[in-house]
Each structure stands twice: as C-alpha cells, then as structure tokens.
Give the backbone structure.
Amino acid sequence: MNNSYLPVIDISPLYSKNPDHWQSVALDIDSACQKSGFFYVTGHGITPERITQLAAMYQKFFAQPLDQKLQIDITKTRHHRGYGAIGTEQLDPKRPGDFKETFDMGRNLAPDHPHVLAEKPLHGTNQYPELVGFKELVETHYWDMLELGKTILRGLAIALGLAPYYFDKNFTEPLSVLRFIHYPQVEKIALKNQIGAGAHTDYGCITILHQDDIGGLQVQDKQGQWLDATPIAGSFVINIGDMMSRWSNDRYTSTPHRVINPSGSERYSMPFFVEPNFETKIAALPGCFDQANPAKYQQISAGNYLLSRFAETYEYFDKEPKTH
C-alpha cells in the first residue's frame, strides 16, 4: 500500500468541541481528496464489537439457501432494497455481471408514510430476512454510520471553505444506503472475465467502507495503475463519489476502483453510501467555481442522478417490479 497515495487519517479531532481542532483534519482530508480521492480513517467511534456483531449477522444471512434469500429479492421492490443475487449488478459494462451477492437497506419508512403512498422513487420500506435481531442491529448501525458520514462531511466542508455544518441540511431525509457484500471464492466463477466488482466510481457523496482482512480492493491511480487498498484493522476506507466531484467542480474527483477476490478465499465487506435528500441540488458549490474556472456540470437533483446511474447498472431497474 502507498501511504502517501492512500493515507491514514485520524479523525478523532473532528469530535472535539473546540472547532480549532478540526482544521488540521480538514487539511489532511483535502490533500487526500485532491491526490487520490481515497483515504483511511481511524478514530471514528464505531466499536470493534459492533463490527463483530454485524459480521456474524451478515454471514448468517448469506449462508442461507438461495431460495430463502430470494424471498427478499431486490427486483421485487421499486426502491432498491433487499437481496441482490450474483450477477444482478454490472458495475463495469465491459465485463459480465459482478461475482458477488448483496443486501441493501435504506431509511426504513412505514407502508403508510406519505412518500411511500405517493410511490416517491427510492423511498420505501426495507425488505429484511427473518433472522432474529437483524432488523434492530442494522437499523441502529445505519444511523450511526450516517452520523459518521456527516462528521467526515464536516471536514470536507471546512476543506472547501464552507461553514462546518454546511451539508447537514441536506441529510434530513437521506437516500443513504447500507450494503453487505459477499464475494464467493473466485474458483467458483463460471463466466469468463467475471470479477468480484468491476471497475467503477461510486455515485454519491462519499462512501465509508469496512472491509474484512482478506484484501482484494484495488484503487486506480492517476497513471492508470491499480494499487491494493490493504485492509487496516479498526479503519474504514473513504472514497469520493461522483456527486462530490460535481459539488466540488472536480476539485475532488471520484476514483475508479474494483474488487479482485484473492484465490481460495471468501470476502465480505460493508459499504455505507452517504447520499443526501432526494431534492438536494447537486451543482458547483460556492467557492468551487469562478470566471476562470466555470461550473462544469449542469445542476441535477441527487435523487434523479442516482436513478440515472442505477438504470445503467441494474437490468431490472427499469422494469415493473413484481410487488411494491
């Protein structure tokens, strides 16, 4: 691992009540985002015990028979929630569908919530497996991860010359997604040229990834070389997504990455995609453009941007769902 290209940043000063302590972290984040768009964070407050609990739960889920997992198949919902079988997601259009299976959840709304009744896109009720304690554990973790995301965004706001809590107003009804991923042993791949996760950039603001100790995540540097993002105990990997690229007017750019699962090993990971409210305007932020550096992207809402990207990635997404 190249520590200068993929640095480790202790974000514990961002939890200080003294704003003066935040500046040094913001400078480190700004440097990492400009160089690579990828960095590790420690000092984040998510306990090892929580990660252990989640690992036991998602391994139990993925170990179920396929027909049981398909009871909450992601193609049954309009809102991108539930189980995604192997090949459902195709991140790299030049390769077959990814050799992984997934579970996705978002902000869980009641069936009678006005947004659900109005069939507002990406607003819905989660599909959960019938595993004791699963729903309670993942919903608690979802909101804890959102708070971590807002903390990192505070560092980004300072780095961009904005008020520290600038982004908070955009996360009152977030589209953020917590995902569990299982990459089976590569020896089981049946399709030529299929890998765990094809080369791609993430769609949202930032991604907070917990990876197990197996390895396999690779990041593409500015010269097109693939670097291993080696697992570091107690850390999360953070990367910039396409929305933050647009917001920063490419001061920060989203970095292609992929997963090449090591031979003879299963791999598990937990990304949390930090996505704002549906109506949030994604356009160049104040201070990120001027006459010499005009805005590069047309304004679009966060929700419509995500919908456009999902339609490119999932064959099922434009189809009429089997159930609501």
Notes: The first strand starts at residue 8 and ends at 10. Residues 319-324 have pLDDT under 50 and may be disordered.
